[in-house]
Amino acid sequence: MLEVRYIYDVNNKPVNEYTIKNGSYQLSVINLGATITKMIVPNENNKLENITLRYYDYKFYKENPYYLGCLIDVDKFIQKKPCCINYYFNCTILYHALIFTYKENNHYIIIKYSLEDNQVLIEYDTNLPINLSHVLFFNLSGNVKFDILNHDLKIGSKEIDLKQDISYFKHYNNDDEDELLHLSYKENEIKMKVFSFNRDIYLSFGKYFNKEFYINKKNIGEQFSGIGIVICGELNNQLVNYQFL
User: What percent of the chain has pLDDT over 70?
Assistant: First the structure.
């Protein structure tokens, strides 16, 4: 099932939010930057929860100061330079999938989002000399009803302290485990596993949020509003799988 919602124009081109649904699972993406706005999953009582951070006012996706759901150039991200790839993408709709394509001269970027049962798969392809990834902030309580301090986060078998003081993003590596990352919230029994060929992970707990921008259902963005996850590697063509339990 597909829904298309018009948001506004950028340079006389329409920005739309595309939502694909598969049972109780939903994924929403806008064609400005192929940016993820929502991942909706059921909790233990089958109540649907948006577990990603988004802007309350979609006009802020034009600049995306928090990089919410943002497609990025990994090398610039690591160097703490402006890294958001906020190009205008064309969208092709497939069964339970969206393909966003940017082309200029002989260069291209293609991002494919698939919603398969309880999994969101993101495939990256480009012939540009850059590595691609997304910045995704998660809060499994749903629309930031609570902060993330009662979440459980593991990289492989290593427990991550969510109270640590990280000013931006901190690098982790996991070479030993098939499962790259595991995030859970026991209050509603939502669990997420991440699988990827790439083993480098960067984590943020939102300390760089400055309370200037409202997120989700008009909450103030602040430290511990969400867990920022960036999966990085040296491959131009890569696949990241977000699986919900």
Answer: 97
Round to whole Å and give the CA distance between 132 and 236. 7
The secondary structure of 166-231, three-state, reads CCCCEEEECCCCCCCEEEEECCCCEEEEEEECCCEEEEECCCCCCCCCEECCCEECCCCCCEEEEE
CATH of 2-244, one of 2.30.38.10, 2.70.98.10, 1.20.970.10, 3.90.25.10: 2.70.98.10
pTM over 0.90? The answer is: yes
pLDDT the model gives residue 197: 84
Q: How many CB atoms lie within 10 A of CB 239?
A: 17
Reading the block at residue 89, the tokens are: 């993408």
3-state secondary structure (DSSP) of residue 58: helix
Report the chain's terminal Cα–Cα distance, integer Å. Answer: 21
Query: If you count them, how many residues does the chain have?
Result: 245
Tabulate helix, strand, coil % of the chain (nearest 5).
5, 50, 45
